[in-house]
Amino acid sequence: MNHKPVEGFSKLTKQGKIDWLVSEYLEGNEEYQNILKQYWNENADLQKLHEEFSENTISNFYMPYGIAPNFLIDGKLFALPMAVEESSVVAAASKAAKFWIDKGGFKTTIINNEKLGHTHFIFNVESHKLLHFFNFKLKKKLFEATEDITANMRKRGGGILDIRLIDKTSEMPDYYQLKASFDTVDSMGANFINSCLEQFGKTMKQEIATSEDFTQEEKNSLQIVMNILSNFTPDCLVRAEVSCKIEDLKDDSGISNEEFARKFKQAVTIAEIEPFRATTHNKGIMNGVDAVVIATGNDFRATEACAHAYAARDGQYRSLTHCTTDNGIFRFWIDLPISVGVVGGLTNLHPLVKFSLALLGKPSAQELMSILAVSGLAQNFGALRSLVTTGIQKGHMKMHLLNILNQMGATEEEKQHFVNYFKDKTVSHHEVIHEFNRLRAQ
User: Fold this and answer.
1) Confidence band (pLDDT; 50, 70, 90) for 364?
2) Catalytic residues
3) 173 is a domain residue
4) Do 160 and 221 have their domain in common?
5) Would you call 311 helix, strand, or coil by DSSP?
């Protein structure tokens, strides 16, 4: 395993990169060449497009692209595109959508649409002096200096909403922030926000250098550390909810409506107070959210980071969903902070992303926020419904069955046998192997 570092890897052709990897790391096994090439698109232009999304690309990595139908959202019917490899995610979302379609469906509200970014800087100066300079001179200059950058965004109804000076010197010596809020309309806005922030840093440096409000020693102490958007956007928030009379909570698991509502609320409350459960609970929510985020060409890492930061905003990690059962009404909702776009990035390039957005009726960014929150809520409802009734493994393992059988090289006839065999049984890995061996021994 004594591999040698490589110089100029990025300058090699695609085939050159593959040849080097196979020779250096894979003992020259040509089978690995075939594995990579079988995932290349036959359309050379389409393949080139995919390769240019990233760097040093040598192949494509496929994920299943599924559809969850029957989502009634704010009175409109949707079929949600979901790119996800985990068994039962699409099935659970679809089942939850069908459950709520005759109970009024999902209702959503955009609570706010602000995105944030910061210029982080060090300045050895008295806070009151800096605050006075910011309020009476710098803030106006920052808006003026970014007018060219924000012109197109302002035409679309967005732009910089506000800029504030934040004193963080109690947490780190001489540390301050310019905290800016933005409305980026239908774009995710990362490049726009970062361009504005970098101009803030330049303008502040120039204005302080020429100001008579500070001594030369104070001016020399200024350090612009970084200018960067924040993926924590607690004020870019959407609520999705479902509700109905408890007497209408018909479930085919055999327990009463009242018991279902009681156990469901208990499960949510446990996730609200117990971080170990909340982590798995919220992971399930993000199964639904991320699948649609990926299908629509948005950044699921940013979505995840923001959601989990929001879940811990009061110092303890908690559930993103909540439930009440007051006055005979079952109500289940999520408040999800999420920053997404429907223009820019992959949305104008990736053919399947364009298909997804067309399938959703070419939504605005706010409409996509609503769809994503609903997808997460539906996924969570489906998971909790299973957990408090039949248990999670019955449905999950049935969806996982084909994965196990494919690993064992089962024929189509054998797969059908197992589908019938487990119709009234809970799938387990041990039982699949036992029955597979018995079947093959016949």
Assistant:
1) very high
2) 86, 283, 299, 396
3) yes
4) yes
5) helix
